[in-house]
């Protein structure tokens, strides 16, 4: 899966599921919990989506380190797990 493909799937899922749009007022590095966009139920939905869509299994360490907090962090995490380079790897 190419870099743009998995990133777009994640962005689309989050925007559609949590009824938000990433833009200048709500940048991709916004904390979805602190901004009130995602609650614990949404976290579980996101977690299951990533597992089902990308075949990624989360460890307890992954879940406790807050890897699913912002779109940027989520994309970086999924990219690492898929073996893709990310913007923060450069």
- Secondary-structure element sequence? HHHH
Structural class: mainly alpha
**How would you sum up the major sheet?**
none
Helix content: 40-55%
Let me know the number of strands: 0
Low-pLDDT residue spans:
85-90
Count of helical regions:
4
- Integer average pLDDT: 90
Strand content: under 5%
Can you tell me about this structure?
The protein has about 90 residues and is mainly alpha-helical. The chain contains four helices and no strands. The chain has helices at about 5-15, 40-55, 60-65, 70-80.
Features:
single chain, 90 residues, 0% strand, disordered C terminus
Q: TL;DR?
A:
It contains 4 helices and no strands.
Helix and strand layout, with pairings?
Layout: H1 3-17, H2 40-54, H3 60-64, H4 71-82
Helix pairs in contact: 1-2, 1-4
